[in-house]
Amino acid sequence: MQEKIQKNTELARAKGRTQSSEARLAATDFIKFREYVCGHRTYEHMQVWIDALNTGQSNKYLHGIAGEDTCILAPRNSAKSSVLLQWVAWNIGVHINLGLSLKILYISYTIEVAASKSRQIKAILESKPYQEVFPKIQPSKSKWGEREWAIDFTHAGVSVIEEP
Question: What is the pTM of this model?
């Protein structure tokens, strides 16, 4: 893992950016990621969700998030959607840093809600703090639409030939 972080730091430097110690920590710690990239504190009830999502289990396609399905039930305005879309953005970077492509299907009760969440995830990926944390992530020039998008896997150095 340290080798992957070092390569990420080298890529950031090559792009003319320096990667702060906070950015390096955010690449491996979701709580630090939320603080550094999104400017959000993590409260006790959110930590329960994060612990359920970050299972520590891995398989051929998922690192640290494999395992049983998870359902989060919480009241309105408890930040479920915010935490989840930030977690998705963080995991895209984590998986790319490990050389893994990650496919995500965001489902909601209406296409409009799902599209809104998709836009929010894309905005995180395009933000300067995110780019410092995960410099390998760059929008695909050919697929960056409202309902379907991808990162530039060539820029990220990730093969998509062996996709699930």
Answer: 0.86
